[in-house]
Amino acid sequence: MAHKYIFLATLGLATACSEVQQYQASPGEVAPSAPSLSQRYRLAAGDKVRITVFNEPDLSGEFQVAPDQTIAFPLIGHIDASGASADELAHRITARLAQGYLNNPIVTAEVSLFRPFYVLGEVNHPGEYPYTSSLTVLQAVAAAEGFTYRANKRVVLLKRANSGHEVAVEITSDLHVFPGDTVRIKERYF
Q: Start and end of every Polysaccharide export protein N-terminal domain (predicted)?
């Protein structure tokens, strides 16, 4: 009789887990390291970019991408940063500065502060946290002071910054979080 209940409980667990996905990286997606992430990364509101204009200290500095996806830059005004990489932003600024402001401007740009990620649900301190390179889900949970006693420690609901929906994903040691992602820890059932 007891074996029948164990079998039914196992069957119910298997059915519940059938909706969980093993996270599959999209083509070209690897664990983000600081240089590769900065090169592939697409700017959005909340990011900070360090822009250097060679021999122009008054034009160099750190700039934040505004909610309208632009950067207010001296002399040339607002530059569209939406969806641009740091290199593309540098090229846009170079082109605008070359239109009568500077002769042969040399501009570099790098992301100095990525937009934050979010941890919600069954963690001890849910909220917004600063992104660091190569961040995993387990490190994100640790930043939120760990799981609560009710937390499901096997599955996470992950919403990527560029996605409109959450996906249930099995928690593994190499499941990475990217800037702007939302990690939601659900309550376990038993």
A: 38-111
Same domain, 175 and 121: yes
47 close to 53: Cβ distance less than 8 angstroms = no
* Per-residue model confidence (pLDDT) at position 39: 59
Lookup: tokens for 81: 């940063």
Indicate the pLDDT class of residue 25, thresholds 50, 70 and 90.
very low
| 61, β-bridge pairs | 51
Read off the tokens for 184.
């939601």
- Comparing C-alpha atoms, which of 48, 31, 133 is closest to residue 89? 48
Into how many domains does the chain fold?
2
> Does 20 or 178 have the greater pLDDT score?
178
Task: Give pTM, 2 decimals.
Answer: 0.69
- Structural domain contains residue 36: no
Alpha-carbon distance of 69 to 65, in angstroms, equals: 6
Spatial distance between the Cα atoms of 77 and 66, rounded to a whole number of angstroms: 13
- The whole-angstrom separation of Cα 109 and Cα 167 is 33
